[in-house]
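Quick log. Single chain, no ligands specified.
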Amino acid sequence: MEPKRIKTPIDEDTVRGLTVGDFVLLSGRVVTGRDRVHKYLYKKSPEQVELPLELEGLVLYHCGPIVRKLKDGFEIVSAGPTTSIRMEIYEPWVIKNYGIRGIIGKGGMGMETLKAMKEAGCVYMHTISGAAAYLAKRIKRVVDVWNEEEFGMTEALWVLEVEEFPVIITMDAKGNSLHDSVLKQTEQQYRGLLNL
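-> predicted structure:
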């Protein structure tokens, strides 16, 4: 399968052209965000928050990176995905109000997030679990960090420049979810095994 090469910021038309199963090599700016960042953004408008950049058109990576401080900046040592479903309560709000065009993580998200993705034009990008050192090599530099002192290294918002970061679209802006399809197939097979 030939990968699609996409650079951030991403426009809505590009996102709406992506389909579950597409292999994408992502380049440009990506921001990390775990529980603390989501809680901070939740129920606030972009005008009410103080971030180092505008999130419109960017991709939010569910990742708590391990970072080495250097004399002249930072080096990402490890950058694997964290389980996305923990952010389900916040994600629809973040997608709709901040113009996020993609979420990178593992495990997929729920139906409320899928609904927000369809409505606002956003996709879920599943990346490789267990390959944190490899993924760190796809990060070319740390552009900025926000709230590291208060949130800590793994919960801070890191602004990263990535190059050909590998992802597969598993939830698209058309309302399709590979995660939901797999769950339904599994339940059907399970019921068949139990003769239900």
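The chain has a mean pLDDT of 93.
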